[in-house]
Amino acid sequence: MTSELPEERLAELKSAFAAIDADGDGYVTEAELRRHFPDLPPEALAELSLAADTDQDGRYSLEEFIRAMA
């Protein structure tokens, strides 16, 4: 998956993930997404959860984030 992305795009996604991951634990939670994107409608968060949170643990790993945003 990540090997298919150009290095520049992969670096952009990693940087965006790090900016959203406020506590630096390696996961992005819905709370962190709401803080980073305060105008994001709840419906968009629900759609993202269905599409991107593949292991349904309520948070997004870097791999899940890249897969969703690529």
How would you describe the overall organization of this protein?
The protein has 70 residues and is mostly helical. It has one domain: Orthogonal Bundle (Recoverin, domain 1), CATH 1.10.238. Helix content is 57%, strand content 9%. It has four helices and two strands, in the order H-E-H-H-E-H. A two-stranded antiparallel ribbon has the order 1-2. Helix 1 crosses helix 4 (62-69). Residues 8-43, 53-70 form the EF-hand domain.
The main sheet comes to: 2 strands, antiparallel
**Mean pLDDT value:** 93
CATH architecture group name: Orthogonal Bundle
Q: Write out the strand line-up for the largest beta sheet, numbering strands in chain order.
A: 1-2
The CA-CA distance between the termini, in Å, is 9 Å
In brief:
With 70 residues, the protein is mainly alpha-helical.
Kindly list the characteristics that best describe this protein.
single chain, 70 residues, Recoverin, domain 1, two-stranded antiparallel sheet, 4 helices, 57% helix, 9% strand
Write the layout of secondary structure elements.
Blueprint: H1 7-20, E1 27-29, H2 30-36, H3 42-52, E2 59-61, H4 62-69
Antiparallel strand pairs: 1-2
